[in-house]
C-alpha cells in the first residue's frame, strides 16, 4: 500500500542513453517515485526493504534482478538498503548491440510486467555478477572512440544471460497455461475500462474464474482481481497526475458509478484519498 509517498512526473533526463551506478549499502530515504524515461535493470547482490513497480510491492532480499521498462513507475520505499548496480539504457543505445541479442531484449522488456523479478540461484548469481562489475568498470574508463560499442557488447551478453535465466524459470510452467495467463494480462490492458470483474475475463478466455485466479497466483503471486485493480489504480494515478480534471470527472471517466465509489476504491488501494494524492504531487513538483 502507498502511504504518504509522493509520485513525481518522471526521472531526470540523462545526457547519455546509457548509465550504470554502483550501490554499496545504499539506504534510501523515501524519494519520490519516478515514471521511467529509460529501461532499467536493478541488480541486487544484497538488500532489504520494499520496491514498488506500478503499484506492486516486491520484497528486496538479495540475488535478484528487477527489470523495468520505459514508462513504468518505480519507487524504493524509505529504509530500504541495496548493494548492487542500477543500469539504464534507451532504445537508441540498444541499437548499438548486435542484432542477434534483439530477441532476448524483446522477451524481457516488451512485456516487462510479467518478467519484473528474476530470482537468481547461486550458480546464476556467480555467472552474472562479474558481468555487471565489468560493465561498471568499463563505463568508468575515460571516453574513447568505441566505448559505446564495448558497453553495448557487455549489455548484449547480460541480456542473453538474463533471457536464459528467465527461460529456465518458465521451463517448469505448463506452456499452454502460461499463455493463458499472458492473454489475461494483455486483456486487462485492453478491457479494464469495459469490466473489472474476474468472471468477464475468465469467460473471454473460456476458463473458470477459479482457474484464472489460480494461474495468476502461480505466475505473478497476485490474484486476478488484484491485477485488475492494479491496472485501474495505475490509470487513476495517471489522470490525477497528468490532468487537471476534477476528481468527479475522473471517477466517471473510469466508469465508477459515483465519485464516492471511486474515492473509496482509491483509498482502499493507496491508503489515501485521490485529493490527498494529488496535493502530494503538487508539493513534489514545486
UniProtKB/TrEMBL annotation:
Keywords: DNA-binding, Transcription, Transcription regulation. The keyword Repeat does not apply. GO terms for molecular function: DNA-binding transcription factor activity; sequence-specific DNA binding. The keyword Lipid metabolism does not apply. Signal peptide: none annotated. InterPro entries: Homeodomain-like_sf (IPR009057), HTH_AraC (IPR018060). SMART domains: HTH_ARAC. Pfam families: HTH_18. It comes from Pedobacter hartonius. It comes from the Bacteria. Residues 182-280 form the HTH araC/xylS-type domain. This is AraC-type DNA-binding protein.
